[in-house]
Amino acid sequence: MMKKLLALVLTSVVVLGSLTGCGEKKNDAAEGASTEAAAETTVAAEDLKIVLLLPGEINDQGWNASNYAGVVACNEQLGTSMEYVEAVQEADFESTFREYAERGYDIIMAAGSQFDEAAASVAASYPDTRFMVVNGSKCDADNLCPLFPKEYEASYLAAIIAGYITENGQFGMIGGDPNQAMKDLMAVYGKTAVEVASERGIEGAAYNLAYANSWSDVALGKQMSESMIDGGADVMFAYANELGLGVINGAVEKGAKYVGYSSNQNDIDPNTVVASIDFDYATMYVWAIDQYMNGNLAGHQIVEVGVPEGIYFPVYTDNCPGEAMAACDQAVEDLKAGKVDLKALFD
């Protein structure tokens, strides 16, 4: 799986995303910060000290694997010596941030909104270190610059496929933690899947959403998956790191279908995982570090990226119906053209 993921790393860097102001900061303040950053942070790749903090293992075939691909891409394409730390526990978030800031690291990245509060707390004490939280929202300091992938665009694509592969219109959904980004992407998935199933003439389409409050408990994921399938769900969906592998295992044993999310999970069992929405975070990482080296990535802003920037894309198996593939491909084009307002689906 890792080989396939790394094979997706692009050989050229494209400019991604839009910059969103943080809180009530004015544009002129952000522009001033950008000018100051340009003067202070232009640096050669080999001189950069960068580390990525991960909440789980890099072999989870999901979120951690997708972000780890960014480390590999930066080192291969930019010539950095970016490091990573696996399975950082919540109790150690602040101390790990402080450890690397004390050691003089230029950039400390962290994969997941669960790192947001800790990064904001520590950043004030280390103004010379840039803190970048993927899926973060805290950006009220010059050295806070979160990267926000619009994951709800990816869940929209997954939902369209789910809506076409279901036979009874019952969708099981499991999230690791009910943070706002998770709630948004789950709302988009559930409402879209039900709408597609209903348009196909399936009556009583509905979704069942539950949160595990865990990202790594594989056994719990399997248990929750089997329970939902026993309750009628014939298509499962999960976003929960290693716990998601348990959800897939439950679907395999119970004969349900599954739409992969956050990486290409098709090879786990193509009869069960009929398609995946892959995340090409390698491109996002390369762009972000390149922008930093050129002095163009200041604090006080959130960088947003999604389908239009090539971050999310579908990967199909031979078991995915043609109508599902066609509908998903059309959705990709509609998102790129700005024809879809997914925020209207948020709870």
**What profile does the largest beta sheet have?**
6 strands, mixed
Distance N to C terminus: 34 Å
Number of DSSP-assigned strands: 13
Q: Based on helices, strands and strand pairing, what is the structural class?
A: alpha/beta
Give the helix tally.
11
Multimeric organization: single chain
Secondary-structure element order, N to C: HEHEHEHEHEEHEHEHEHEEHEEH
Strand neighbour order, sheet with most strands: 8-7-9-10-11-13
On the 0 to 100 scale, the average pLDDT is: 88
Shape: globular
What is the CA-based Rg, rounded? 20 Å
Q: Low-confidence segments, ≥5 residues, pLDDT <50?
A: 1-17, 23-41
Indicate the proportion of strand residues. 15-25%
Assign a percent range to the helix content.
40-55%
